[in-house]
Amino acid sequence: MTDNTIKLKDIARILSVSESTVSRALRDHPRISLATRERVKKLAEQLDYVPNQVARNLQNRHMNAIGVVIPKLSYHLYAQAISGMEEVAEQLGYNIIICQTNESTEREQNIVQELLSTRIAGFIISLSSSTVDFEHFAKIKRRKVPLVFFNRECEDIHTDRVIIDNFGVARQAVEHLIRSGSKRIAYFGGPAEVQISNRRLEGYTAALKDHQFPLIADYIVHTEFNPRSAYEAAGRLLGLSTPPDAILAFSDQFAYTLYQKAREMGIDIPTELSLIGFNNEPATSLLLPALSTVDQPAFAMGKTAAEILFQQIQHPNDYYRAQTKVLQSRLVLRGSTR
Amino acid sequence: MTDNTIKLKDIARILSVSESTVSRALRDHPRISLATRERVKKLAEQLDYVPNQVARNLQNRHMNAIGVVIPKLSYHLYAQAISGMEEVAEQLGYNIIICQTNESTEREQNIVQELLSTRIAGFIISLSSSTVDFEHFAKIKRRKVPLVFFNRECEDIHTDRVIIDNFGVARQAVEHLIRSGSKRIAYFGGPAEVQISNRRLEGYTAALKDHQFPLIADYIVHTEFNPRSAYEAAGRLLGLSTPPDAILAFSDQFAYTLYQKAREMGIDIPTELSLIGFNNEPATSLLLPALSTVDQPAFAMGKTAAEILFQQIQHPNDYYRAQTKVLQSRLVLRGSTR
DNA sequence: TTGTACGCGTTATCAT
DNA sequence: ATGATAACGCGTACAA
């Protein structure tokens, strides 16, 4: 297979100069005569020369790309966060390699291995819901590859992280439900292994305790991130002999399911049931009644994670204490709460 | 900066064999003794050796990655399509580099240039809405880098494409509106440069013509892909002295805007206004009434595009006639149509 | 200011 | 079955 791609050598030969001269001229190296620089650049332009980043990267010891490992692109929060990362990466000339785990630890492990092999400059990771073994993350750190967790983090690994105040905002949401007259408040959460779900549960618990509300086991629901599990769990919760009159849901997706089930069971929102979701997805404001939810600074979270990652990349030998950045969320009250 | 990464050389030295032997052993080359193969593999495992893909790629002449260039990740269709591509790429050991143009041609051009430099194995592209100059695509073809368009294509470039039968399904949708009694049917479309919007417009026109409906200029709307433009356009359309009694919207997003405006103006859906969207986004079924829409085979489109791209990658010298794969969409009728 | 020589980590080719 | 050497395309230290 013949490869006609133009390379430094070709330009050098035509101009009867050395490859290094061409290399320097193209990168505006200071000690190069204006004349040759322009000759070189002109010819490069004519020949449609495109530098080979792979060769450059081999010298750099890493790719000009960062790896982003997330559960699912279709979770709106991640799509937004990635836009935030892009803004940072683009300016620095880095690409973003996105990999979805689909909530599978095995895929997560394979992806990490694969990306290590690709010699990406660093990782930004949000854990799969099923991940409880952290050896693959430890491996990243052992190899001293920059790593930042965001949103769903892993406490066992000593590294930077960017998260949201899940505890605080959940507490605040439940506070609101209490103040607006709810008496039987439930938490509709994700799988029991998921950190952020548990943090929100703690916030929920704290708010109840503050107001001397009892903790009722039936009102604390854990369910998988798939519509069927959620639908069944919703049926059980709303079908209790003493059903809740308010629910804090782990996500807007879960809240949608609760809307659906409530409609089917003839339960009116918000008079019989107050509902608060999480994420402020675009459709939330279109529901009838519009869904109250927690707006997450997803774009900012992605941007911040990328900024911190590039600090690590650009100062690889700095001794640093792993920092945890906590971004503030905002409770958005709409028609689904009283 | 010391880099302690284990490489072939290290393993070779410890085992007192040559680098080539190690290289071959690790890749299960046939002509290597079982004994050494196992010795090598065992040590590699112990030392936590991870092959350097960058070095490999330098020889391959291209990265083990494909570039995916799309308008926006937050359009649900693209998130789904990417999952389809991932399924194919993963099996072949390729990564996916995703770049968003945010509907800007300038970004699109920069991204293409950047990805060419990165020596990705191929491109899968869906055009930015504003792109009317195609030189950057021509450049890809000139360099003989595999390229597949999907969803939003570019007719001027001779290459493979995977699209949806926009004409046919729009015609079918309008047919349905006519048969269910609508008399004044409007098309609420995207920017005038966007191919797929125009194809749908042609389908709309064809259906009207089939039934001897007049073509009314006021009923054909072009608007930008941002909420404000859409909101204003919706106001103008619904505020006409003789407003439409049915609308085919270019996207569910646009349909949402029409819902909102209709509510504000006290127009009832579906009795006073029938509405059909495009994309079957998750939230469509939750609206009241639920939105009738066109379900697009987004996952299949991504998967097919990737399959075709890898055909190009694996058979670079095949003479081939650029193929156009047209996937079928499906009209999903719900409460927003009569 | 420019050229020479070597290294980045791996694989392919040719030799043994 | 294994080893030696060159090559992939570029950047850089050192020399001139």
Can you tell me about this structure?
2 copies of one chain form a homodimer. By secondary structure, chain A is an alpha/beta fold. The first copy, chain A, has 2 domains: 56-164 and 298-327, Rossmann fold (3-Layer(aba) Sandwich); 166-296, 3-Layer(aba) Sandwich (Rossmann fold), CATH 3.40.50. Helices cover 43% and strands 15% of the residues of chain A. Chain A has 12 helices and 12 strands. In chain A, the strands form 3 sheets. The first copy, chain A, has a 6-stranded parallel beta sheet with strand order 2-1-3-4-5-11, sandwiched between helices. In chain A, helix 7 links the parallel strand 3 and strand 4 (147-150). The longest helix of chain A has 17 residues, at 298-314. The first copy, chain A, is elongated. Chain A starts with 7 loop residues before the first helix and ends in a 6-residue tail after the last strand. At the A-B interface, helix 4, helix 5, strand 2, helix 6 and helix 11 of A face helix 4, helix 5, strand 2, helix 6 and helix 11 of B. Chain B binds a DNA duplex (16 and 16 nucleotides) through residues 5, 7-9, 17-21, 23-24, 27, 31-33, 36, 51-61.
Task: Categorize the overall geometry of chain A.
Answer: elongated
Indicate the CATH architecture of the largest domain in chain A. 3-Layer(aba) Sandwich
SSE order of chain A in H/E notation?
HHHHEHEHEHEEHEHEHEHEEHEE
Low-confidence stretches of chain A: none
Can you say what the CATH homologous superfamily of the largest domain in chain A is? Response regulator
* Overall number of strands of chain A: 12
CATH class annotation of the largest domain in chain A? Alpha Beta
